[in-house]
Protein: GIY-YIG nuclease family protein
Amino acid sequence: MSFVYFIAPVNGGPIRIGRTTKVDNRLKGLMNMSPVELELIGVVSGGPYVEYWLHEYFAKDRLHSEWFKPSKQLLEIAEDARAEVRNRLIPDEPTSTSRIWLTKATLQKLKTSTAELRRLTGLSSVSEISPLTVRSIARLCSIYPERFQPNDFYDTPKNPGSVEA
Structure:
């Protein structure tokens, strides 16, 4: 089982959003590399989709790599995780996160084109768009929730925090 964790310095500061199967080992590893003492703020079940979704959702607060400014909303989500409550904004991990091949039928269902998906995901015109990776799908669903939901790609419910949920 995979987990998404929230780790921060004991006295406050940037929050790391990451994913691991062994949270205690990950905290120890990060503490060995950190000049300050770190603590686990919270953890939720989730794999690559949930991690990428959170990274994209908080992209405006990204400081470096997986470290984010402790915004009010990020602190709220991390505190909910500490209390073992899954915040309503955090989507469920899809049961299958295999790559999605963009067939004509898929593009019609999504009401989009490969050119538009390239633009929305930030890929260049020469980049291969198909198959869509978990990271690209999480990016689309977090940045454009009014347009794309996980259940457009996977067998999973809509993002809990979405307008239509």
